Structure formats: C-alpha cells, structure tokens
C-alpha cells in the first residue's frame, strides 16, 4: 500500500505516518521511483499504536511494547504490559486526586469571591485566594 492508502484506511495522517517511520514504529520499503510501500501488517501496528495512545502511553513506551509483542508470546506480552498499565493507572489516580483537590479549592475561592462585599479599599491578593488556604 502507498502512504495515501494507509492514511485512508487507518485514519492516521500521512505526516504522522512519516513521523512514526522516523521513530521506527512502522516501516516501509521504497519503490524505484521513491514512493513508500507499506505491507498490510502496518495497519495492525497502527491499531496497536492507537490503542496504546488511548492509554496515554508515550511513544518510546509504545515502541518498546511493539518490540516485546513482535518477539514474545502473549504470556510474555501480558507479563510486561500488566505492570506498565498498573503504574499508569496509579498515575491517573494521583492526577484525579490532585484535580479533585484543585476543583474543591477553586469552588471555595469562587464562593468566597462571589460573596465579597463591595469596598473602596485596594484589593489584596489574599482577598481573592483566602478560601484556598
């Protein structure tokens, strides 16, 4: 397949396909006139990359996982993938906790600012953010 067909069938833009090729996530051969030719396996790799990106994995992690799946068994892949996903889940849980704390602080601050009485005095920073402490 040429790059335009891979892009059409996968939904991945040609610019991204070229970038993935630079990172050795996918590969192609060149025809005599310089066109990229991809094998049908590229669609499977792109599907894998898409799934890994949905888990917010970084491209270097995805490259490593592609190598593991290419050279290992399903059991080996599972044993490598399980701790990686468990770590990612812990990171997401930590982020959610921090965002919930931020949300609560913003809500308190918003309530405080909304009920501030009118004043002709100069405002000080602790006035707006007093509820955060």
Automatic annotation (TrEMBL):
Membrane-crossing segments per the record: none
InterPro entries the record matches: DNA-bd_dom_put_sf, MerR-type_HTH_dom, MerR_fam
Domain HTH merR-type: 1-68
GO molecular function: DNA binding; DNA-binding transcription factor activity
Stored Pfam families: MerR_1
Keyword DNA-binding among record annotations: yes
The entry's keywords: DNA-binding
Signal peptide annotation: none
Protein's recorded name: HTH merR-type domain-containing protein
Naturally occurring in which organism (per UniProt): Dietzia psychralcaliphila
